[in-house]
């Protein structure tokens, strides 16, 4: 999406920026 691999506001520990 926008973050560099981790979005702490949505708790995504997946590749957010592929």
What's the arrangement of secondary structure elements?
Blueprint: no helix or strand
Describe the structure.
This protein is mostly loops and 18 residues long. Helix content is 0%, strand content 0%. The chain contains no helices and no strands.
Name its key features:
18 residues; little secondary structure; flat
> Percent of residues in helical segments?
under 10%
Beta strand %: under 5%
What overall form do the CA principal axes indicate?
flat
Q: Compute the number of strand runs.
A: 0
Head-to-tail CA distance between termini = 8 Å
Mean pLDDT equals 63
**What can be said about the biggest beta sheet?**
none
Query: Counting H and I runs of at least 4 residues, what is the number of helices?
Result: 0
Radius of gyration, whole Å: 6 Å
Category from helices, strands and their pairing: little secondary structure
* Unreliable residue runs: none
Counting copies of identical and different chains, the oligomeric state is single chain
């Amino acid at each position: 999406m926008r973050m560099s691999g981790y979005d702490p506001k949505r708790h995504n520990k997946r590749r957010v920026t592929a």
